[in-house]
Amino acid sequence: MRPFFALIVLGCLASSAHADWTFVRGDANGDGAVDLSDAIHGLAYLFQTGPIVCRDANDTNDDGELDLADPVFALNWLFVGSQAIAAPFPDCGEDPTSDGLDCGGPLASCPVVGGGSAAIFPAALYASGQYPTDVAWGDLNGDGVLDLAVANNDTPDVGILLGVPGGTFTEVVNYPTGNAPRSVAIGDLDGDGSLDVVVSNHDDDEIGVLRGYGDGTFAPVVSYPAGDGPQSLALGDLDADGDLDVVTSCFFGDEIRVLLGNGDGTLTPGTAYSAATDPRSILLADLDDDGDLDLVASLGTDTIDIRLGSGNGTFGPAVSLPVLSGLGKIVTGDVNGDGVLDLIAAHYWEPIDVLLGNGDGTFTFAAPVSCPTPSGSWVDVGDLDGDGDLDVAIADIWGDFNVFLGNGDGSFGSDQHIVAGTPTSGYFVDIDADGHLDLVTADVESAGAGVVRGRGDGTFVSGFAAEVGNGPDAIAVGDFDSDGHLDFATADDSDDTVSVWLGAGDGTFLPSALLSTWMNPRSIVAGDLDSDGAIDLIAGNYFSDSASVFLGNNDGTFTPAGSFSTGPRPDNLTLGDLDGDGDLDVGVGNFFADQVRILLGNGNGTFTTAGTVATADSPQGTAFGDLDGDGNLDLVTANYGVANNVSVYLGNGAGGFGPGLVYDVVGTPNAVALEDFDSDGDLDVAVTSWNNGRCYVLLGNGDGTLMAGTAYSLRTFPEAMDAGDVDLDGHPDIVATSSLGTVTLLRGVGDGTFAPSLHYTTGRSLRSVVLADFDADGDLDLGATSVSSDEARILLNQTVP
Asked: Mind listing the pLDDT tens digit for each residue in 728-784?
């Protein structure tokens, strides 16, 4: 049984003081004009409006004037394409204009789809510090490659990740800030040609400036008073003196403050503006086409405040626009084709608000866009079908997406439903350089990110997600219908069912069968139990102390064939021919009984109990393999309980096992995989430890004994693991899933050691994992189940064979 812990994550960004908005610039549609991606309430969105001023101050449209990009509500993850892309930059480290600036918001690491081995799965993570809340891009060391500055709320510091050509980053270097930096921006505040870093220190009520030396290093922070609870940041030349100024929203002070730049990196207090209740985010853009930056603020009163800029560092009185409740993200773009910026706002459980700009800073409400499922806080716009009109995508509360194609007049057509995680941030960008906008998402719940590739006609090709039964606790793979394509089945704990999905050979699947089990199936295995050439299934029913057998009909359907007793609380199942008779036998890990029950197959789908193997304590992971080279399968168990060890039991070839050899590991071992990691012809053992986020590799000596384990870092709370050659270098690798939704890849070097871990996100919390070639392209893909979203998710390997 898996330990049950309630992990409560307060990620309600709509009301969080960690919120921040962001714009990202680049030529996303290849038309030669700079487009913008705007992050609002944890999400960034792309809109193609031509030249526009936004948060990060520099010459975005190459017209000789400073423009501005602005942070609004928490960009949770930062992504760069896994290959050369047109937006937001041609490649990580290049910029379509000369500005070299960008910005963003909260992430648990900074996920970047990098080149080389980092791009095996859709999104890679780079550690930056504890509870990162914002991120900004810019060339900090003058090498022409984009670098990252990340505000880490809990450390507290700003992490600098210097970019490497190809879209990867060096190890983070952290610079202390004030307490709880919530937002970060990059710009040249002192006019020396080197980029500086600005942070909002929420708990110190200060804005901090770290002046850059131009080589990627920075002077100690200098702080300036900035009101009660500064949160979002915006940089831009508000008073037309050529120097960057700072605007920040003060969450607890219910105001927005301006700090005017002196041109030498110092700041002078400017005007403070009342902002009703809980100003969370700010956005600067020229809404009335007078050349001055105007201010848009999202408030906790479900209103949008607009203040027109005067061009001298001040703003006019606020005009409040009441909107629907649960105000989330806001994006701007010209959705009706009149050349004037419009506003689109997302709301929890409410339709999308569309506010058409009148060109004078006022807006007219258009018909709202209703989501067929309860909407979430994320919205984005972009020309998804290439017709020149902006389209809208919104996430619902379950994590799916609904895409509405624009009609070019501010109205939108019927929705198209796609599945892509539980997004809290993301944007449209042509990540694969095929000329079509793709959808890149981020997820606070699982610290995850997803890539949904656009076809250019308004539809998307996503990493496949199948809505299986409730609480899918395990997954098994096999060719159930003999068509040459891999299929999968899940054990659905909460529904007492097994869901069967048939593969098309391209990484997509269709439902085939729903099989009834006894109480709470938590494990499942697939194999030919009756020697008829068809793949059969066994599901371990946790609370009924039994296993259900389903004999395959070779067409994707199954015939129930009864059940057998497993002993108390069957937590895991393992198949193998233990007695050499050619029939598959079963090992059942009985978690609370501290034993593995051995059942020998009769060759007809039935089993006979052969005995039990007493384990050290609570066997949560089991595996069969020949560790001593005698031709007989041996048993390895990961003992989760107080023993905290791995046990090896040598098989006698008749279904029996000798006494256990015990090897200590640190933590709570809960999953095990066997492979020859050091290329010596002997099986080695890898085991995950749930409570300390480690993988221990114990190399085999060829006689059934193991060397002491070497620890490798995973992510928090690893749940399952598998091993195989993922990167096609001829050496087995290890993948492990986390209950927080992260996939960790340990790339084997071939000598029993592993390269530093790479971390990928899926947008869903994961339970089980399996490696298999689901799309028949010659590399191993990843299949996993999520008990939080009731999905089986397939991540296709991006490695080119």
From this structure: 999 999 999 988 777 889 999 999 999 988 877 665 678 899 999 999 999 999 999
If you count them, how many residues does the chain have?
801
CA 85 to chain centre: 20
Scored b (16 or more CB within 10 A) or e, 85-118 reads: bbbbbbbbbbbbbebbbbbbbbbbbbbbbbbebb
3-class secondary structure, 436? coil
Nearest CA to 439 out of 104, 792, 44 is that of 44
Amino acid in the structure at residue 503: G
Q: Go through the domains of the chain in sequence order and give each one's CATH number.
A: 22-338 (2.130.10)
How large is the average pLDDT for residues 278-298? 87
pLDDT score of 801 = 60
Q: Report which of 513, 339, 358, 480 is spatially closest to residue 772, judged by C-alpha positions.
A: 480
Residue 258, H or E segment: strand 255-261
Distances 417 to 11, 351, 414 between C-alpha atoms, Å? 24, 16, 10
Residue for token pair 């899918």: 472
DSSP 174: E
The Cα 4–Cα 92 span in angstroms is 41
Tokens standing for 524? 């499942």
Give the whole-angstrom CA distance, residue 214 versus residue 209: 15
The identity of residue 516, as a single letter, is S
Asked whether the predicted pLDDT for residue 115 surpasses 70, the reply is no
Query: Residue 221: what pLDDT?
Result: 97
Buried b (16+ CB within 10 A) or exposed e, 775-800: beeebbbbbbbbbbbbbbbbbbbbbe
CB 643 within 8 A of CB 715: no
Summarised one tens digit per residue, pLDDT across range 122-154 is 444 566 777 777 777 788 999 988 778 888 888
Helix (H) or strand (E) holding 793: strand 791-795
Query: If you ran DSSP here, which 8-state letter would residue 228 be given?
Result: S
Q: Give yes or no for a contact between 315 and 293, defined as CB atoms under 8 angstroms apart.
A: no
Preceding peptide of 230 cis, ω within 30°: no
CA-to-CA dists, residue 154 to 133, 219, 315, 445, angstroms: 9, 21, 34, 18
User: What whole-number distance in Å separates Cα of residue 320 and Cα of residue 306?
Assistant: 6
Element (H, E) at 25: strand 22-26
Lay out the sheet containing 781-786: strands in order across: 465-467, 791-795, 781-786, 769-772
Q: What share of the chain is helix, strand, coil (3-state, %, to 5)?
A: 0, 50, 50
Longest dimension (CA), the chain: 88
User: What is the value of pTM for the model shown?
Assistant: 0.71
Backbone angles phi, psi at 759, to 5 degrees: -120, 135
State the Cα–Cα distance between residues 245 and 68, nearest whole angstrom: 11
State how far the alpha carbon of 489 is from the alpha carbons of 308, 485, 623, 726, in Å. Answer: 58, 14, 20, 22
- Six-digit token string for 422: 């539980």
Give the three-class secondary structure for 443.
strand
- Strands in 42-123 per DSSP E: 43-47, 101-103, 110-112
Give the phi and the psi of residue 645 in degrees, each rounded to 5: -150, 175
Q: Order of strands across the sheet with 281-285?
A: 281-285, 294-298, 303-307, 319-322
